[in-house]
Amino acid sequence: MAPKKLTPQQQLQAQRHLVATFIGSSRCGKSVLLTSHLFNIFSSFYAPTLDQVFVADPPVTHPHLPAITYVDVGTGPNTSDRFIPLRTQTSDVVVIVFSVVDKSTLEDAVFRYAVFAKDYNKPIVLVGTKADLRGPGETLAERTDEVIPWEAERYAKKIGATEYVECSALNEEGMADVFEALVRAALGEKVRFGEREG
Question: What backbone torsions phi and psi does residue 141 show, to the nearest 5 degrees?
Answer without folding.
Answer: -65, -30
